[in-house]
Amino acid sequence: MPILDGVGLVKAVRQFESQLFIIAISGNTLHNEATAYYDAGYNYVMSKPYNTEKLYDIILKVRKRQLIMS
Questions:
Q1: What is the pLDDT of residue 32?
Q2: Per-position DSSP letters for 1-62, written without gaps between them
Q3: In a domain, 58, yes or no
Q4: Domains contained in the chain, number
Q5: Rounded to an integer, what is the distance from CA 48 to the centroid of its chain?
Q6: Looking at the domain assignment, is residue 40 inside a domain?
Q7: N or C: more exposed end of the chain, with fewer CB within 10 A?
Q8: What's the CATH code of the domain at 54?
């Protein structure tokens, strides 16, 4: 991204929206890199290449949790 990287973007989003569920999909998912994503405000980190079924499963689990909270 030309202005912000993913970590900068999620930090900016978190200033205004603390409840939004944000998933990082990255090729940089070594332990220290994933920790930086979580510290920045991501809720979940997936590594590339990612599996669409896994992403769909995560989205369904998040949706079910949101439905229960509503």
A1: 87
A2: --S--HHHHHHHHHTT-SS---EEEES--SHHHHHHHHHHT-SEEEESSPPHHHHHHHHHHH
A3: yes
A4: 1
A5: 13
A6: yes
A7: C
A8: 3.40.50.2300
Band (12; pLDDT cuts 50, 70, 90): very high
Q: Classify residue 34: in a domain, yes or no.
A: yes
Residue numbers of the domain that contains 43:
6-69
pLDDT tens, position by position, 14-63: 999 988 999 999 988 888 899 999 999 998 899 999 899 999 988 888 88
**Considering only CA atoms, which of 23, 50, 51 is closest in space to residue 37?**
23
Residue 65 CA to residue 44 CA, distance in Å, equals: 14
Tokens of 10: 């999620």
Instruction: Copy the structure tokens of residue 15.
Output: 């200033």
Spatial contact of 46 and 53, defined as CB atoms under 8 Å apart: no
What is the value of pTM for the model shown?
Answer: 0.77
